[in-house]
Amino acid sequence: MSARPPWRPLHALTGGSVGVLLAVAAWEMAACALNPLILPPPRAVLAELMSLLADPANWTSIAATLQRTLLGFLAGAGVGLACGLAVGASLALDKLIDPLTTLLMAMPPIAWVVLALIWFGIGNSAAVFTVAVAVVPIVAVAARAGLVARDRALDQMAALFGAGPLVRLLEVRLPQIVTHVAPAAITELAVAMKVAVMIELLALADGLGAALARARVNLDSATAFAWIALVLALVLGLDRGLLRPLHARLERWRAAGIPSPGGAA
């Protein structure tokens, strides 16, 4: 099987920019036919976005949302990875946990928001918990699938050469599990940002969601669209600047055609 071509950030950005430009062109045409209160034109939104970024106070809102998103995402991904590996290694535990995983995946985020506000009150803890609990089941399912689908012959070969359980986990199993977990993590990062903004909009006094709530109260469509554009830009930046390069780095062993990253040059 041919090796996957390496991920190139510059090519990804230039290729993706074509789709963005087409979307902006469609937006401009639609804005010409609608009331600016309903759909402001891209120029007005861009001007408002530049104005928001020029205000140092708004960077506090950006930092608050990023902090909640990343803390919740990392906590949820860590718990989900640990649960997925534990379930994948035990058939009995798999049967026990599988219905619970399905229920967690079916739970709407807004329900977790309500419960988090009851349990933790209004504050960062509620936001981080809500984000984390939204991430856990998807990452757990992906980790379990990666562990079950791994090439067991590689594990047996490592054992024959005297590798201990920890070495086999880090050098043989995890690189194969990354293939399943990384796409789920990339998707869940966007979910984490959406959940963080949602709880901020509903209950918190700071963050991008709170700024969106103020724009809604003021019926300021251009400002609302500017904040939304900023949220999307942050998700895209985290995706292309953090998760995808990390995924590519962890999968160098696959591109080199070797069984584990321990043998990479």
Describe it.
With 265 residues, this protein is mostly helical. It has a single domain (61-256), classed as MetI-like fold. The protein is 82% helix and 0% strand. It contains eleven helices and no strands. It is elongated. The chain starts with 8 loop residues before the first helix and ends in a 10-residue tail after the last helix.
Low-confidence spans: 257-265
Distance between the termini: 20 Å
Global geometry: elongated
Structural class: mainly alpha
What's the oligomerization state?
single chain
User: What is the CATH third-level topology name?
Assistant: MetI-like fold
The CATH homologous superfamily: MetI-like
| CATH level 1 name | Mainly Alpha
**Count of DSSP strands:** 0
Helix content: over 70%
Quick description:
The chain contains eleven helices and no strands.
Features:
mainly alpha, 11 helices, 265 residues, single chain
Describe the protein's topology.
Layout: H1 9-33, H2 42-54, H3 56-89, H4 91-106, H5 109-120, H6 124-148, H7 152-160, H8 165-203, H9 208-217, H10 221-250, H11 252-255
